[in-house]
Amino acid sequence: MDVPPTPFVNFVVVGVQKAGTSALFHFLAQHPQVAMPTVKELHFFDDDRRCWDAPDYRDYHGRFPRRRGCVVGEATPSYIWWPGALARLADYNPRLKVIALFRDPVDRAHAHWRMSRARGLDALDFSTAIRAEGRRLDGLAPQAPERRHLSYVARGFYGQQVDRLYDVFPRRQVLMLRKEDLANDHAATLARVFAFLGLPPAKIEPCRIFEGAASEAPAPQDVAYLAATYAADLARFALLTGLPVSAWAGGCARGPAPADGRCG
């Protein structure tokens, strides 16, 4: 019996919350020459409990279908942010291709807080939480779950994250996208993604990904506080990526959050 080879992951999708990573995972899984796991976010390379001195990839590879003639990939957004995850990915496959999705960092912070509140992980209001973040996270163990749940401000420093990404992967192996690209220019953006992965074109219909009920926007003073906090880093991010960000730093967060987004 001709058994297909063990999958070897060729690409990952990384990025930030509610930036289109779920939609892109869904679209990629529909391409006939892409093999993806049945679930998004395997969280293999950001798992500090594993022995990374001599990593065992067998259980990781076991999550992927065995299909010949396919590129193999997964989507775990936090790989770009979690300490050590990018270096572990590079050790696993130095030729790995990385697709990174971003959104307005102020909008992202508010969405992150709403998610933590909905899950019962944070009792603070948004204004208090973003100003207390440094104190709340200071002294926590590196692997403490609060670092994932309460890092509303920290995860918005995209320039720092891209600097770390380019430290371990050459730019030719990285494709940078904004949430707006996938939502507003679906076909052209997917064509870029498929070309980046060396795949033939495929017609994939757009979808609507539920984002939760409409919610109150952050207060203007909180938008201003975060916009000022991110200003220098956002300039660095724009310089590194070439992505247009003039509408960011609060532009998306000033109106009510949508009940759903085309590809959010």
UniProtKB/TrEMBL annotation:
UniProt entry tagged with the keyword Glycoprotein: yes
Keywords noted in UniProt: Glycoprotein, Transferase
GO molecular function per UniProt: sulfotransferase activity
Domain of life per record: Bacteria
InterPro entries in the cross-refs: NST/OST, P-loop_NTPase, Sulfotransferase_dom
Location of the Sulfotransferase domain: 11-200
Name used for this protein in its record: Sulfotransferase
Source organism of this protein record: Xanthobacter dioxanivorans
